[in-house]
């Protein structure tokens, strides 16, 4: 076999790879996999099937599709939300998929590939809905949200504009251990209302009928992103290219429809566009 034939064979093999695979960092090519952090406590974005104890959700299926598009396998690691970025920075994982908000304050060491539009949404329990009929009734009430997110600050900002500025008592913001803890406190009436991403509430209403009542519309707009270290621009660009490919093929839209997330579509995909 001549050198010409070897070169042609190599080029043909390279062209046969998924578009994003050729541009992956060498270490990921060698490993043949991408390691992704998640925490299965945020349905329908990421959760566990109670019957099989396997990971399920929009992010899980999208992550698998992205890895396939990049020509590698996917390995999931379950990590507490507050430890996800530290785990990324220490090299324990290559990226994070957990519905994480792309915020300027989180971009010191990582870039975000934005893939979903979300919003902070007030809701209360059915038991409390007789007293809290609209967002106007939240002033002076205890409202809970996961302390590891930006929701507590967003609740405070909403309270300043819609309660304090109008001469009403401020919302008492309660930081919780996560969204599950917020719902538990809501059910036991330790808090009066809660905040969660609007991408999750339709799912909750189907899973726990007659338990929650949504209050108004989402009061913020946030982009959810996939953080990748700034020192890994090849991986960031490969993820973006894979996501764009999935959008062109219609696979992204199909997943949105499957998980009742059509209202959260983000096109085109972007990098570091969250505010």
Describe the structure in your own words.
With 275 residues, the chain is of the alpha/beta class. It is 35% helix and 23% strand. The strands form 4 sheets. It has a 5-stranded mixed beta sheet, sandwiched between helices. Strands 4-1-5 form a 3-stranded parallel beta sheet. α5 (151-162) links the parallel β8 (142-146) and β9 (172-176). α3 (58-70) crosses α8 and α3 (58-70) packs antiparallel against α9. Mean pLDDT is 91; it is low at 3-17.
Summarize the structure.
The protein is an alpha/beta fold.
Key attributes of the depicted protein:
single chain, 275 residues, alpha/beta, five-stranded mixed β-sheet, three-stranded parallel β-sheet, disordered N terminus
Total helical segments = 9
Q: Give the beta-strand count.
A: 13
As a whole number of angstroms, the C-alpha radius of gyration is 21 Å
Q: What is the element string, with H for helices and E for strands?
A: HHEEEHEHEEEEHEHEHEEHHE
Biggest β-sheet, characterized? 5 strands, mixed
Helices and strands, with pairings:
Elements: H1 3-16, H2 26-31, E1 33-38, E2 47-48, E3 55-56, H3 58-70, E4 73-78, H4 81-89, E5 95-96, E6 110-118, E7 120-125, E8 142-146, H5 151-162, E9 172-176, H6 179-187, E10 193-197, H7 201-207, E11 212-215, E12 222-229, H8 233-249, H9 251-258, E13 270-271
Helix pairs in contact: 3-8, 3-9
């Amino acid at each position: 076999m001549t050198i010409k034939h070897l070169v042609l064979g190599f080029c043909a093999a390279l062209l046969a790879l998924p578009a994003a695979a050729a541009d992956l960092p060498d270490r990921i090519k060698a490993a043949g996999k991408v390691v992704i952090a998640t925490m299965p406590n945020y349905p329908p974005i990421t959760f566990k099937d109670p019957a099989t104890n396997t990971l399920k959700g929009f992010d899980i299926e999208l992550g698998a599709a992205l890895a396939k598009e990049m020509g590698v396998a996917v390995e999931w690691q379950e990590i507490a939300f507050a430890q996800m970025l530290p785990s990324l920075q220490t090299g324990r994982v290559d990226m994070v998929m957990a519905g994480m908000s792309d915020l300027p304050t989180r971009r010191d060491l990582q870039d975000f590939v934005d893939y979903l539009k979300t919003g902070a949404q007030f809701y209360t329990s059915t038991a409390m809905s007789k007293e809290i009929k609209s967002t106007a009734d939240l002033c002076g009430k205890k409202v809970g949200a996961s302390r590891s997110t930006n929701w507590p600050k967003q609740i405070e900002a909403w309270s300043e504009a819609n309660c304090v500025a109008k001469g009403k008592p401020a919302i008492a913001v309660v930081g919780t251990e996560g969204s599950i803890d917020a719902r538990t406190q809501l059910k036991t009436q330790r808090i009066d209302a809660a905040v969660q991403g609007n991408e999750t509430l339709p799912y909750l209403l189907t899973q726990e009928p007659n338990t929650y009542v949504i209050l108004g519309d989402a009061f913020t707009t946030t982009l959810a992103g996939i953080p990748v270290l700034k020192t890994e621009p090849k991986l960031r660009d490969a993820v973006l290219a894979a996501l764009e490919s999935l959008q062109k093929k219609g696979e992204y839209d199909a997943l949105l429809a499957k998980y009742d997330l059509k209202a959260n579509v983000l096109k085109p995909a972007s990098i570091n566009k969250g505010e």
